[in-house]
Specification:
Length: 618
């Protein structure tokens, strides 16, 4: 029987009270199931200053004790993981800062900043699951500040201190007026572009960055800087070093994934042992790889972690006025006259009295960078799917970030912000997941960040031990951190759909209800915006505008994408889980109504046919 149109359905059942509501529900289109689907709304601003107070009360004021007494085996394992994750890039960033700043900021300053800020934030911060350290975007901005200070003929540390003062002012102002609520306009579209950008940095830096000289495969370059120390050694073979480095690096990554797989396996005598192997996977892998290097290949040189010799300011002075660097500027001098003072002289302006006011302009860019770097990372960590229970503290923590970086500016230390991949690794390491990988519980604690950053500070006392760590092994840890963050990204999983058979697509809400061409079109737009941000971030000449490019992704999602996609499509691809569940429940109800209507129609058709037969017989 040919189906009747919807008007006929309604007309033919207008006296049937049980069928009539179902027919009306079946008429709803996908766009009508949830009003304003796909639209993002911003919350009203809190009263002046109250956002900071509310943030403090619902986080530090409510859950502080719970977060400092939940010590267990997982705390130890995650502490070691985060220490390894933080210490290596801290030294690496310190070396780069030293090179770019003429040794005014170096490894010692970076270690000190990372340690004290991490410890302080773990004690008084509102969201201590967020790891704070140096990041590539902040380093790129620092390079720009160095160039500006040189063009103005003003000491960099003094200029940086004034910029830090304005940065503090902007952060306090934004927190006071609840500007951080703007971050909630960032949806999965922007969050995952930023997250994938940071993941790409980790993966490329581990394997071999085409934009720099870091990474495992870079050791095959005979001109790599690590080979220059042995150029006069006739027994040194850079290919041996490159091959061993490759084995150590990729071997460390493989070992970590191997050990972590035991948690869901049937090996060992009980679940407690399997969980321990999983929790300590990174620590065991680093130790095993280091032992293999030291005892099986003692004669093959590999690049070691570059650490300073002692704890003191990196900038050593030729003279008492500390205007020249020892020993580069005074090679004939036997010893340094001393180190630079720890506290920066704000009055050392070289006669440029306008600097305190002029610094407000670059500080605006610094604020935007800190605002986005912190805000998007906080937004990712506090996503509803992570089931965190202890609340958010955007305004309060932004003020803390301004205070911390102001103190660092006064001491000649680098700025620090929340860093995305270590934060997500920290979160996932403290989480319990079901068989499908969904987070069901997170151990929200202050102890892991406190202990890991305390270890970073104490590492200054055991610098000789840290020198034993081969850099390829640490690259292997970075590669693990990057790769382990990918499966949780919808952006990455949608990209993989290009390589999969459509009939074998994973069962997700958007693959169930959307045409595959529409899914691919959305992914292509996201790839385009990711490519633009990635290009800007890696071009040193324009990298300072990287924060602005990231910020543009928000209005692009709010105003540009709705021109190409219906609201319900954006909801399924980019919405919150609760809103998606509401839409899907209504969709299923509508589909059930249609099936019910078809059954009733078939039933009435049979009754009419029987009546006709009876009439003919009569």
């Amino acid at each position: 029987m040919a189906p009747r149109n919807q008007d006929d359905n309604i007309k033919g059942n207008e006296h049937d009270d049980t069928v009539k509501p179902n027919f009306r529900a079946s008429q709803l289109t996908n766009a009508e199931l949830v009003p304003d689907a796909g639209k993002v709304h911003i919350e009203p601003a809190e009263s002046w200053g109250t956002g900071i107070i509310y943030d403090f009360k619902r986080t530090v004021g409510t859950h502080w004790v719970k977060k400092v007494i939940n010590f267990n085996q997982k705390t130890i394992a995650v502490t070691l993981l985060m220490f390894i994750s933080v210490i290596a890039p801290t030294f690496t960033f310190g070396a780069v800062y030293g090179k770019e700043s003429g040794n005014r900021i170096g490894a010692v300053e970076t270690i000190l900043a990372t340690s004290w800020v991490g410890i302080a934030y773990s004690i008084i911060g509102g969201m201590p699951l967020c790891i704070i350290r140096s990041t590539g975007p902040v380093l790129a901005f620092t390079k720009a500040l160095i160039r500006i200070s040189e063009s103005l003929d003003v000491p960099y540390l003094t200029f940086n201190a004034w910029v830090s003062s304005w940065l503090l002012f902007y952060c306090l102002l934004a927190g006071f007026f609840d500007v951080t609520r703007v971050i909630r306009l960032a949806t999965r579209f922007t969050d995952e572009i930023f997250a994938l950008l940071i993941v790409s940095i980790f993966v490329l830096d581990a394997i071999g960055d085409p934009f720099s000289q870091v990474g495992i495969l870079r050791y095959f370059d005979p001109n790599h800087k690590s080979h220059s120390d042995y150029q006069d050694d006739p027994n040194y073979n850079y290919l041996e070093t490159a091959l061993l480095s490759t084995i150590l690096g990729f071997g460390t990554t493989s070992l970590i994934f191997f050990f972590r797989s035991f948690k869901t396996s049937s090996f060992f005598c009980n679940q407690g042992v399997r969980t321990s192997v999983h929790d300590f996977a990174v620590s065991m892998s680093v130790v095993i790889a280091t032992v293999v290097k030291e005892f099986l290949f003692p004669d093959v040189e590999t690049e070691q972690l570059n650490v300073p010799d002692q704890f003191e300011p990196t900038y050593q002075c030729c003279t008492s006025d500390c205007l020249t660097f020892f020993p580069d500027d005074c090679p004939d001098q036997a010893a340094a006259a001393g180190a630079r003072p720890w506290f920066v002289d704000f009055s050392d302006l070289n006669g440029k009295g306008f600097i305190p006011i002029m610094a407000a302009l670059p500080a605006l860019g610094a604020f935007l960078l800190c605002f986005l770097d912190n805000g998007i990372t906080w937004h990712l960590v506090n996503h509803k799917s992570h089931n965190l229970q202890h609340g958010e503290a955007y305004n309060y923590d932004l003020c803390l970030s301004g205070i911390f970086n102001f103190v660092n500016g006064c001491l000649g230390l680098p700025w620090l912000v929340a860093t995305t991949v270590p934060c997500l690794i920290h979160l996932n390491s403290l989480a319990e997941k079901d068989k499908d990988g969904k987070i069901i519980y997170v151990q929200e604690t202050r102890l892991t960040m406190f202990l890991s950053h305390l270890m970073v500070g104490l590492s200054l006392l055991v610098l000789q031990v840290l020198q034993l760590l081969p850099m390829p092994v640490l690259y292997g840890v970075f590669l693990f951190m990057g790769l382990s963050a990918l499966p949780a990204m919808q952006f990455w999983n949608r990209f993989l759909l290009f390589l999969q058979q459509p009939s074998r697509y994973p069962d997700t809400v958007f693959t169930r209800y959307m045409d595959k061409s529409r899914i691919h079109m959305y992914t292509l737009w996201q790839i385009l915006f990711f490519g633009m941000v990635f290009f800007v971030q890696n071009m040193s000449a324009i990298s300072i505008i990287f924060p602005f490019m990231t910020l543009l992704c928000i209005p692009a999602r709010l105003s540009f994408l709705p021109r190409f996609f219906e609201g319900w499509e954006l909801l399924l691809l980019d919405g919150d889980d609760l809103d998606i569940k509401e839409w899907e429940d209504k969709k299923r109800a509508a589909m059930h109504s249609i099936r019910f209507a078809d059954v009733e129609e078939s039933k009435h058709g049979k009754e009419e046919s029987m009546d006709d037969e009876v009439s003919e017989d009569a």
